[in-house]
Amino acid sequence: MKNGSTTKTTASKSAKGEAEEAGARVSADAQGSNGAGDTAEARSFIFLPPPRAEALSVPDPLNERGELVCTDETTLAPAQMRELYRWLQLTRLVEEKLVNLYRQTKVVGGVFRSLGQEATAVGTCYALRPADFITPLIRDLGAVLVKGIRPREIFAQYMAKAWGPSEGRDLNIHFGDIERGFVGPISHLGDMIPVMTGIVLAARMRKKETVAVAYIGDGGMSTGAFHEGLNFAAVQRLPLVVVAEHNWYAYSTPTRKQCAVTNLADKAAAYGIPGYVVDGNDVVACYEVMKKAAEFARAGGGAVLIEAKTYRRKGHAEHDDQRYLPEGELEAWEKRDPLDRYQRHLISNGVATQDALDEITADVRREVEEDAAWAESSPMPEAEKAAYNVFDNSNVPPAFRPKVFGRGE
Amino acid sequence: MSAAAKKEHKSNRPERGGVVTFVEAIRQGLWEEMERDPSVFLIGEDVGVYGGAFKVTDGLLDEFGDGRVIDTPISEAAIVGAACGAALMGMRPVAEFQFIDFITPAFDMLTNYAAKCRYRWGAGVAAVFRGPCGAGVHAGPFHSLNAEAFFMNTAGLKMVEPSTAYDAKGLIKAAIRDPDPVLFFEHKKLYRLPRLREEIPEDDYTVEIGKARTRREGRDLSVITFGAQVLTALDAAEELEKEGLSVEVIDLRTLAPMDREAILATARRTSKVLILHEASRTGGIGGEIAATIAEEAFEWLDAPVVRVAATDTPVPYSPPLEEYHLPQARDVLDAARKLAAY
Ligand SMILES: Cc1ncc(C[n+]2csc(CCOP(=O)(O)OP(=O)(O)O)c2C)c(N)n1
Ligand SMILES: [Mg+2]
């Protein structure tokens, strides 16, 4: 990876070429496609240094039977590969359990699925060291789990229980655990990019080789905070790796209405940092690209932008009827399911037998059920606990409800 | 979206008037203003094909096209800034925040640009900035905001928050026709509340910005409030009537510029005032109302002015915590009884 390489590719495009490309995009839009349809065939990659349209035709990795699998170019040992499978399965089954609990009205807020894009969060996070930091988006449950947050904590959060890490104060993955390198997000998209620059700024001041990874969506990248944060990381050469999860939608808004670049990674050029595109449904490729990016960042290269092309197969949240999807798009992406694909990959390559994988799945199921039961057994928080923790209560008293005419009471 | 899918979801033109919910009243108001005035347009995240996260703009894209119903990137500063610029050119933008919590990335645009244009160079920014506000639905610290106090100390922004379907339609129309920037807060609990269904007129009407409304007349004490808390106040008033207390309920409807006349009039009439709002107490707009009464109606008062509001914490997620945080009917009853007995 070399700083500035993306800038060169972009600049070498003729103005005419650009215009034609834009024209092609517009006419594709007019036909009601947002380009995701052709992704199924053409847009597949392992990791591609100059992220530009011409690089989009890297062939899908196939096994002898012609089925879609994952890339063979890997440094992962077989045991690690089986572990990766476990994380993918855990992510999916925790979410399925959450949907179950939601339908039983035990989840208080909404449920936001990562179905179809689990490989991005799991694969990239698996490439990090324990001392590295992440900040996930709502759909990066996989990364949160890989960082060592247990399913029981997630269940208790969703159910607004007292035993959840935020003790009922905030929802889903909105919490944090500095020990485990997990800085939970707030809802406001983009805000975490500047915060993560601070994490690695402090680490550098303390002579630590910490890398920070911030996950962001195709939508969240349109915020001012995203820009300010990444620009700051770039000029400071901070070891921040931003994973742009290109899942084609931000709520109902397709990417073409979000930004005018062909690849989100093209934006790297504007910051003078390397940008990479990876097949976000190939968990091995996601691992490999992060491994390189983290090494580059850790060695003093500075910030990196990785775009993972994936797809959000569920609506924005459980309530969303996805009325805005073009016909056939979902079906095309079901065929690229990251879990099915990885399972085929492991079996075709002799890394695991079906039986071994089934055993992992059964084990994961057991863990999920146990943890959900634990969370269900937690009480709800006591009402008065709402008053605590606005400030350090050893300095400032809790914010209790004041009494009427209660001076001095 | 395929033609078939689009047809299936096409939402029809709303009736004019009729029996409507709160959300339908706003949708009618937007629709009619867009029909009446071609310079009115909508801009915001997911307002087009999805019809907005709360479906306030459902069907407007099909009717008015994507030239006038604009789905934007997730860029609140761009939404507000673009609305300001378009307003300077004579357009009448209505910008939506998906949740009012997401007004904060546009804080600079609103407080520094929109609010100060007329004062600095005589250019009014005739734009509406609307969105769902309010807590009580277990949505946690980032989807429950009541933002009015953030803007109360900024001269140049009007703020409106209706509590009935009739007022919602009349005020959104008035806001769109207003020559200055208007923040329009819609409490999300009210959107589909069956209790708020009411018959509204078929004919075009507006509700004047800057005027409160007496929702219930009373003699013994006044509750001054707005938004979803009007319902809490009305319920409490009913309960207290059984105890022989006659409670007046004032719905502010407009928060800035505040209807001082109405506030002072009710204070002078009942001599005991309780201010109720859903945002945190400290620095909330209740303080401003109380100060106004203290300064200008002190001689009429028979008791200190009392505030009932949320506690000074973020809005927590878990139901028991959120209930503790928010003012409840029982808090209003308790305060009102003590005030009456003072
Ligand atoms: C600043 C800001 N504005 C609006 C929202 C409301 N909102 C929540 S999620 C979302 C869409 C996010 O899309 P994307 O960034 O692509 O992430 P994805 O949901 O696809 O993972 C929006 C608009 C928000 N959270 N933050
Ligand atoms: Mg997205």
Verbal overview:
The complex is a heterodimer of chains A (409) and B (342). Chain A has 409 residues and is of the alpha/beta class. Chain A has a domain at 78-149 and 178-320 and 330-374: 3-Layer(aba) Sandwich (Rossmann fold), CATH 3.40.50. Chain A is 41% helix and 8% strand. In chain A, the strands form two sheets. In chain A, strands 1-7-8-4-3-2 form a six-stranded mixed sheet, with helices on both faces. A two-stranded antiparallel sheet of chain A has the order 5-6. Residues 1-56 of chain A have low confidence and may be disordered. By secondary structure, chain B is an alpha/beta fold. Chain B has two domains: 3-200, Thiamin diphosphate (ThDP)-binding fold, Pyr/PP domains (Rossmann fold), CATH 3.40.50; 213-340, Rossmann fold (3-Layer(aba) Sandwich). Chain B has helices spanning 3-9, 22-36, 60-64, 76-88, 107-113, 117-121, 148-152, 165-177, 229-242, 260-270, 285-296, 319-325, 329-341; strands at 18-20, 40-44, 69-71, 92-96, 128-133, 158-160, 182-187, 198-200, 213-216, 221-225, 247-251, 254-256, 273-280, 306-310. A seven-stranded mixed sheet of chain B has the order 3-2-4-5-7-6-12, sandwiched between helices. In chain B, helix 4 (76-88) runs parallel beside helix 5 (107-113), helix 9 (229-242) packs across helix 13 and helix 10 packs across helix 11 (285-296). The complex binds thiamine diphosphate and magnesium ion. Thiamine diphosphate sits between chains A (137, 139, 187-189, 217-220, 223, 245, 247, 249-251, 312) and B (45, 74, 76, 98, 102, 105).
